[in-house]
Amino acid sequence: MNRGMISSKELSLIAQDLRGSIIEMITEAKSGHPGGSLSCIDLLTALWFSEMKGVESPSQLSKDRDRFVLSKGHGVPSLYAILARKGFLEKSELMTLRKTGSKLQGHPDRVRMPIVEASTGSLGQGLSVAQGIAMGIKLDGKKERVFCLLGDGEIQEGQIWESAMSASKFKLSNLCAILDANGGQIDGPVSQVMPIEPIADKWKAFGWHVIEIDGHDMTQIQKAYAEFEKLHQSGSEKPVFILARTVKGKGVSFMEGKIEWHGVAPKPDEQTKALAEIQAQTQKIKGAN
Amino acid sequence: MSTPNLKPVKSTRQAFGESLVAWGEKNQNIVVLDADLAKSTKSELFMKKFPNRFFEMGISEANMIGAAAGLSFTGKLPFLCSFGCFLTGRYDTIRLSVAYSQANVRLVGTHAGVGIGDDGHSQMGLEDISLMRALPTMGVFQPMDARETELIMDYLVKDWTGPAYLRLTRQNLPNLMPEGTKWEATKIQLIQKGAEAKKKVVAFASGAGTTEAMGAIELLAQSGVSLSVYNVHSLKPFDSAGVTKAIQGADLVISVEDHSVIGGLGSCIAETMAHLTTHPRLVMYGVQDLFGESGEGEELLEKFGISAKAVTRGVMKELGLS
């Protein structure tokens, strides 16, 4: 499926490149969260490279841009990789992640890096901020949209449900929450740490339009964003919730589905192995029709 | 300066609500959020006048704080209102979504101190100054009367950028602003100079505490003690230079506040005085590491040792006059 100028195959290739950047910067930093950065990168690649308007490049950054809030702040290497590829950061800056004096903080920081719309990292807060931005845009009678990426462990926070209630009350059809449901959190599987299912039913009950997808299938991801845009344009009064089923550590076989890779950096030899796998997958995508 | 009439006339929350409406006319960027306490915080005055710019957030303070931050990122100037204890109780949200984010947000906490009376412990903001003061870049302001509330509101709308906390009373307070003196937003203000006397005491007071300090002047004068009262409406930024100058030659320095002495005005004074090689003794009148309780407001001020009479008794004892 083509949306805008870019095909799902091209998006998948960009996502592979970004996976490499994520692995490299976390390895160099010797700390960070590879599992949750890799699980959301397909969702964010489609968002930043084909869906969001006004953020094409630093020179085309618009005051009336679509906004993105990374509520699951620990996934920030994925955002830095995107910003570097788009020219908002120098590629070499990625290697300063988490180092003293770097603007690439361990969690998003809007003061040090204004393209980051909200400072996050204490879970459960980003959706409220995204909602406030959506309220401000709506109050001004403008059409920009606000996207917010949540983690599935994150929705155990009570504040999430406060914002779930009020986004619906204020009819924020310009707000799209995306759940990176990778099923894992630090202390174990989400289903054991604190069960959150049935997720779709809960958000429906809170008044959201829910779309459930495979969060690694570019075509499904693009379709979901298109559905949100269509609803927004057509005067829907509901905020949209994209429930994206994902795999923690997606794209690196020895990390996939492993809770242990939530917040551990690869060693140099693991990096080599991971990058080789990513490269091989890239070739496979290139070869496919 | 003649001693002002200490008859309570208006609460600072009421003055805030009125100022908010006045500013709402002039500044279209002002938006107001409340968490089901609009009648009590007086933000309902704004709600009635500008319903499109008022957001009723329900009983969910954390979400209100985050939403206000988001609104500020679109160029709005949000005032978010609740009781001080409920608002500052959502500390981590204020810390990250507002303070760390440098959100241009005005947090308004009403129902300050034991002076609220009957509702008791759970509704009294007693640690809010302390909590907000600890956050980098957060301004903390507390008016002593209605007129000063207007002045602080003017400053917070026109001149302040970044996060700020405004602490207000439920109960009425007298008009204490002296005529014709200079008021500066981040400086202490001498509102009553002590008469010539054998013993010289300097009081720093804030919010409802200023009324009590003013009430102690006459009681102490009867025993030959001179009390100068400085009002401290800006707890942060804190006017350390002003305090350092004001305490020169004092036999005793006191602080009077309807707030915990841990981290409140008393602590601000102590932090300044600790830098000086020599300084007078400091005695802090405020809530002494205790929770609040139900009762009549004035009785509670007496019980917690903040009333004019309690301050007078305390000072007499400190000076060896009783």
Largest sheet geometry of chain A: 5 strands, parallel
Mean pLDDT of chain A: 96
Distance between the termini of chain A: 13 Å
- Strand line-up of the largest beta sheet of chain A: 3-4-5-9-8
Which regions of chain B have little confidence, pLDDT < 50, spanning 5+ residues?
A: none
What keyword list fits this structure?
heterodimer; A: 289 residues; alpha/beta; Rossmann fold; 5-stranded parallel beta sheet; two-stranded antiparallel ribbon; 9 helices; 9 strands; 13% strand; B: 322 residues; 2 domains; 7-stranded mixed beta sheet; 5-stranded mixed beta sheet; 13 helices; 14 strands; 37% helix; 21% strand; globular
How would you describe this structure to a colleague?
The complex is a heterodimer of chains A (289) and B (322). Chain A has 289 residues and is of the alpha/beta class. Chain A is built from 9 helices and 9 strands. The model of chain A has no long low-confidence stretch (mean pLDDT 96). Chain B is 37% helix and 21% strand. Chain B has 2 domains: 10-173, Rossmann fold (3-Layer(aba) Sandwich); 189-318, Rossmann fold (3-Layer(aba) Sandwich), CATH 3.40.50.920. With 322 residues, chain B is of the alpha/beta class. At the A-B interface, helix 4 and helix 5 of A face helix 4 and helix 6 of B.
